[in-house]
Amino acid sequence: MLHCPLCSRRVEPYVEDRRRAYFHCARCDLVSADPGSHLDAAAERAYYDLHENDPADRGYRRFLGRLAGPLLGRLSPGMRGLDYGCGPGPTLSVMLEEAGMHMEVHDPLYRPNPGALGRHYDFVTCTEVVEHFRRPAEDWGRLTALVRPGGWLGIMTKLVISRERFAAWHYKDDPTHVSFYSPATFEWLGVRFGLAVERVDRDVLLLQKR
Ligand SMILES: [Zn+2]
Ligand SMILES: [Zn+2]
Q1: Residue 17 lies in a domain
Q2: 66: containing domain
Q3: Position 166 in a domain
Q4: Could you give the ipTM of this predicted complex?
């Protein structure tokens, strides 16, 4: 019997494909990949190494701009931010520094920066990261604790629309993607962690800590 890695309710089978099974939680609406299918650390690292994000890549900047634009509209110059899970080529932090922010970066694999995790920030960005959370209850607790009251958490992740769409979704085929959220999951996260949730694009959410 499996339990939801976010809210610990018992989960039900959702979709099964060639590679793995996915489960759905009726309380928080999270869809989670079978924990028995998680890659080991070496295989996961090898998979991440295939993604090369380059701060000079204009397409990648445009992609991140869908978060940076709406977020910057809520910030003032000189604020302190953290890009959590920046990957091998920090780009969003560079864009936000260009806009006058003071940035720290942290990535558990590529830029471990434990000193940056004991502080509070005016804002934290987390792009294409939360779908990789294997222990979302703990991971979201750690993430939201980094934001000061009144501060912002900027999230990019693709959202679950329906079971039919999920079954045909390329996003689930990335074996490092293990936690899939719907708008209802974000509402649940807002209640659990004291966040006002605003969806500003189809895969961009701004969460303000109360
Ligand atoms: Zn749940
Ligand atoms: Zn991803």
Answers
A1: no
A2: 39-158+184-209
A3: no
A4: 0.94
Q: Which residues surround ligand 1, an ion (CB under 5 A)?
A: 4, 6-7, 9, 25, 27-28, 30
Question: DSSP for 102-139?
Answer: EEEEEBTTTB--GGGGGS-EEEEEEES-GGG-SSHHHH
Ligand nearest to the CA of 2: 1
175 C-alpha vs ligand 1 centroid, how far in Å?
A: 21
Q: How many domains does the chain have?
A: 1
Q: Structure tokens of 151?
A: 């501060």
Tens of pLDDT along 180-205?
999 999 999 999 999 999 999 999 99
Residue 165 lies in a domain: no
Does some domain include residue 16? no
pLDDT in tens, 120-138: 999 999 999 999 999 999 9
